[in-house]
Model the fold of this input.
Amino acid sequence: MAILRSKGKLDISYVPSKVLCRDREIQTLKTLVESGGKALISGEVGTGKTLLARYTFKDAILVNCFVNRSEHAILERILSVSRPGFNPSGLPSRKLWDQIPDDIMIILDEVEGISIDDLNHFLYTLSRRSESGRKLRYVAITRDANILRQMIGDNAIWSTFAEKAVVHLRPYRHEEMVEILRYRAEEALYEGTFDDEIISLIADISLNSEGHMRTGIDILRNSAILAEKEGRDIIEPEDVRSANLDIWLGGLERMDRDLLLVLLSMARASRKKAYLRMEEIEKIYEMECELRGIERIDLLLGLSRLEEEGYVSKRGEKYALLIPSKVLIEEIEGLIERSDLF
Ligand SMILES: Nc1ncnc2c1ncn2[C@@H]1O[C@H](COP(=O)(O)OP(=O)(O)O)[C@@H](O)[C@H]1O
Ligand SMILES: [Mg+2]
Done:
């Protein structure tokens, strides 16, 4: 009984053999670095920035600037890879710069992590060096080029560092997420352990989270682990919903009675299914209303309100629940018991 064929292929640091949906961006990145020796990748969390840089420049030295925050620490990290025998301790940064080989490529990930005291000096020295024909090439990565520009605050430094060299990665759309997740699932999981609806549900949940593709890969891995733990060899919709770690239920308390009932019906109907047709929800909703002697509301309207609140996602004519149905049913039943709304 197994689902995961190769768990390591879903690690954040794993570089897959194909990077889908970013052909144009990869081409631009290559062109920029070949012609000018530098580029800045921008984009929100989980848009594939780190992957794109690592995939495009396989021999580059990767420095995470949230881990190595000072100029000295960054240079030490670069030297530890490019000159493993060299001992930089006790030497000032200036001396370390002298030791950096000319012909290397650096990836400065999360460049906004550099301490504000060192940021300008480091970027200035770096870009001057790259411009002076010494062939030091770099790709810097940031979540937001405008914020970085403001942090730098100096137009001259900004323009030698990154001007006209920004590659922006917009968030993936649903169909792109599906294509990427399917490919990653085929690489890492056994055949027949997931279906198209599972992949689409992971994409829908990820689109509703801040982590985008990062959330997507996490959910893929965690849902496979959950299903395996339960002794199944197939991933079910509830595994996917439960694998999402940023479940948020804070909105339930202030939800009105009618909407709570629509959500409860949706949850009951979703136990074994990823996506539901309107009629499938309606059947259960009618029963719930009858049972409690409550007038029905317009279901379409109810569902679109739930969509706005982030509990439900509409895909074509169907609806997907994004939160584990078990958790929701328990919560809502608890609320109903405690409240005098019913
Ligand atoms: N186009 C893609 N093809 C395949 N996997 C991708 C793609 N984009 C992102 N990923 C995967 O999604 C996750 C998040 O990507 P990452 O590069 O860490 O994003 P960022 O650095 O923008 O936060 C990683 O596991 C990465 O391998
Ligand atoms: Mg990253």
Residues 49-50, 109 surround magnesium ion (ligand 2) (CB under 6 Å). The chain has a mean pLDDT of 95.
